[in-house]
Amino acid sequence: AQKITQTQPGMFVQEKEAVTLDCTYDTSDPSYGLFWYKQPSSGEMIFLIYQGSYDQQNATEGRYSLNFQKARKSANLVISASQLGDSAMYFCATRDDKIIFGKGTRLHILP
Amino acid sequence: DTGVSQDPRHKITKRGQNVTFRCDPISEHNRLYWYRQTLGQGPEFLTYFQNEAQLEKSRLLSDRFSAERPKGSFSTLEIQRTEQGDSAMYLCASSEPSGQGLDTIYFGEGSWLTVV
Predict the structure, then answer these.
(1) Shortest CA gap A66–chain B (Å)
(2) Within a 13 Å sphere around the CA of B113, how many CA atoms are in the beta-carbon half?
(3) Contacts of A100 in chain B (CB under 8 A)
């Protein structure tokens, strides 16, 4: 069975600073994908970034990058130059036929 | 709007009543998923369909829960004899068929259920 672990229940970060959200995963599949989603207080799940297990380079999408360390089974999300609008819940996830989520990290950006 | 849509967005019901939620997936997506999310937790998988076939059901989906996707397009999730523990947000998601399991899943805005 696949499992996602997010060990940071909450984080407070000063605006404009970079922030790293931790994620470790456990899977026996040789091919897998890792995702990060953002969930603001409105409730919608917003797809941020995806990393395939065979991708040679770390994924980047604008201010988001995924620090993928396969040997350590970690897929940390890095948000550069944080903004007030980044305050939200962030979920790391993996997928076989369905997405399996971690418990999430609540990020607070301070002005 | 061509995203996943859910209806109703909010529902307050008395304990013991039945409720039904509807999900319209992205039109070209043939996989449809239902999740449940309680406050402060990550979404928990309930069930998913490929076209009209229900391929997997979580043990979280008790006998009071039933999901259908009769024509392989929209889906409904019905909860019978609601209990206070059913209060949660019910999320629907859709994706294209999974080639190597790597296609992105897109979520709707969720349906909030409060059982009083």
Answers:
(1) 16
(2) 30
(3) 45
Q: Per residue in A30-43, is it b (16+ CB within 10 Å) or e — as a string?
A: eebbbbbbbbeeeb
Of A40, A22, A37, the closest CA to residue A86 belongs to A40
pLDDT digits (tens, 9 = 90+) for A79-96: 999 999 999 999 999 987
- Locate A42 and state its tokens: 């409105």
B85 Rama class: left (phi>0) / alpha (psi -120 to 50) / beta = alpha
Residues of A in contact with B43 (CB under 8 A): 45, 91, 99, 101
C-beta neighbour count of A88 within 10 angstroms? 19
Backbone phi and psi for residue B95, each to the nearest 5 degrees, phi listed first: -155, 165
Closest to B113 measured CA to CA, from B6, B26, B25, B33:
B6
pLDDT at A19 over 60: yes
* Structural contact between residues B110 and B48, judged by C-beta atoms closer than 8 angstroms: no
| B42–A101 CB contact, under 8 Å | yes
Residue B39, pLDDT > 90, answer no
Average pLDDT, chain A: 93
Please report residues of B whose CB lies closer than 8 A to that of A52.
102
Q: Which of residues 23-82 of A touch B (CB under 8 A)?
A: 29, 31-33, 35, 37, 42-47, 50, 52
